[in-house]
Design brief:
The protein is α/β, with parallel strands linked by helices. It folds into 2 domains: 9-177, Thiolase/Chalcone synthase (Peroxisomal Thiolase, Chain A, domain 1), CATH 3.40.47; 182-331, Thiolase/Chalcone synthase (Peroxisomal Thiolase, Chain A, domain 1, 3-Layer(aba) Sandwich), CATH 3.40.47.10. 34% of the residues lie in helices and 24% in strands. The chain is built from 11 helices and 13 strands. It has helices at residues 25-29, 36-43, 57-72, 96-104, 120-133, 157-160, 210-215, 224-246, 263-273, 284-287, 294-305, and strands spanning 9-17, 22-24, 47-49, 81-85, 110-114, 139-147, 165-174, 181-189, 197-199, 220-222, 255-258, 313-320, 324-331. It has a 5-stranded mixed β-sheet with strand order 1-7-6-4-5, sandwiched between helices. It has a 4-stranded mixed β-sheet with strand order 8-13-12-11, with helices on both faces. Helix 4 (96-104) links the parallel strand 4 (81-85) and strand 5 (110-114). Helix 3 (57-72) crosses helix 4 and helix 8 (224-246) packs parallel to helix 9. The longest helix has 23 residues, at 224-246. The protein binds acetyl coenzyme *A (ACO). Acetyl coenzyme *A (ACO) binds next to helix 2, helix 6 and helix 8.
């Protein structure tokens, strides 16, 4: 919490990029022992989009960011902060943000990544808000970008049914009228739960090796049932905390945009928050879980369709590996 009077920063403009290629449940039935019915009942996912060769995060991110700049009238030269949340960067060094900076031509930006798995976008917004408040930057692009298909094991039916690729983005800048903007943020993590969702190899402790390739330990692993339980708990905590900090109750919220991980987690979160499902945005059927991209993709859909318009109060809530969770309340 800062001593500054909120809102001092706002989200302005949105953008997204979804790869054209679709991986449907029917496609997955041919790859692993599963059924469309099981996936729909347990997750709410019907299909997800998968990046093709050449659809790098830098390329997808550039398109999403250009949409944000077009919507806000901010030039690429005016961007002085570029924060990318991702768990699946194009390469490990330099940061994804620096590679995107180059593709976008955001030559005046301080570019860096935020790593909080599916909560990365919410973390990124909070970091950007701090940059605005501290006078470090004026126009910060915050991007959630994933190519999870590259770290998903398509031999593992417990995970491969869930994940998809895509990018969403927004701009964080000083509040234009002192009324619209970020009303609260809440960030939390618990590293003791790290082994519930992790990638074992490929990092400095277990560098790439033949063993890694043989054991497929480069891919994401997840204890689904345990993640599910913690997700429900942490999403509930994140809703409560963001609302308390904003001094609002859920009936004052126009729309809940939860991280799109599983329809059952979303429904449990909505129930806890006392939000009827007609005030909860759900697009998991089309995209699956796109990790850090899921909230900004959903936000972009809502803004472009008019579901979120001027003055709307939006609660965004995320959770992910780490374990991390967090939330923000925004008056659009
Ligand atoms: N198709 C058919 N059967 C399956 C499949 C599948 N794709 N996957 C698992 N099963 C079977 C299991 O083997 C098990 O069979 P058994 O009872 O004979 O042992 C049965 O279905 C039930 O398995 P559970 O794992 O208990 O199934 P659950 O209802 O928990 O659903 C799921 C699994 C969908 C993964 C769920 O646990 C979930 O969504 N967890 C949260 C995942 C999540 O949100 N992850 C994202 C975190 S965000 C991030 O940081 C990336």
């Amino acid at each position: 919490m800062t001593g500054l009077k909120r809102p001092f920063a706002e989200m302005a403009g949105t953008g997204r990029y979804i790869p054209a290629k679709v991986l449907s449940n029917a496609d997955l039935e041919k790859i692993v022992d599963t059924t469309d019915q099981w996936i729909m009942e347990r997750t709410g996912i019907r299909e997800r989009h998968i990046a093709s060769e050449g659809e790098t995060i830098a390329c997808m991110g550039e398109i999403a960011c250009r949409q944000v700049l077009e919507a806000t009238g901010v030039s690429v030269e005016e961007v002085d902060g570029l924060v990318v949340g991702t768990a699946s960067p194009d390469r490990l060094l330099p940061s994804q943000a620096c590679d995107l900076q180059k593709t976008l031509g955001a030559v005046n930006a301080a570019a860096f990544d935020v790593s909080a798995a599916c909560t990365s976008f919410v973390y990124g917004v909070s970091v950007a808000e701090g940059m605005i408040a501290g006078g470090t930057a004026k126009n910060v692009l915050v991007v959630g970008a994933e190519r999870l298909s590259t770290i998903t094991d398509y031999n593992d039916r417990g995970t491969c049914i869930l994940f998809g690729d895509g990018v969403g983005a927004t701009l964080v800048r000083a509040s234009s009228d002192g009324k619209r903007g970020i009303l609260s943020t809440y960030l939390k993590s618990d590293g003791r739960l790290g082994d519930l969702l992790y990638r074992q190899s490929g990092g400095a402790n277990e560098p790439p090796s033949e063993k890694m390739a043989k054991e497929r330990s480069y891919f994401l692993r997840m204890a689904g049932r345990e993640v599910f339980k913690h997700a429900v708990r942490s999403m509930a905590d994140a809703c409560d905390q963001a609302l308390t900090r904003a001094g609002l109750t859920s009936d004052q919220v126009d729309l809940l945009i939860p991280h799109q991980a599983n329809i059952r987690i979303i429904e449990a979160t909505a129930k806890h928050a006392g939000m009827p499902m007609d005030r909860v945005y759900v697009n998991i059927e089309k995209y699956g879980n796109t990790s850090s991209a899921s909230i900004p993709i959903a936000l972009d859909e809502c803004v472009r369709s008019g579901r979120v318009g001027p003055g709307a109060v939006v609660l965004m809530v995320g959770f992910g590996g780490g374990f991390t969770w967090g939330s923000t309340v925004v008056r659009w």
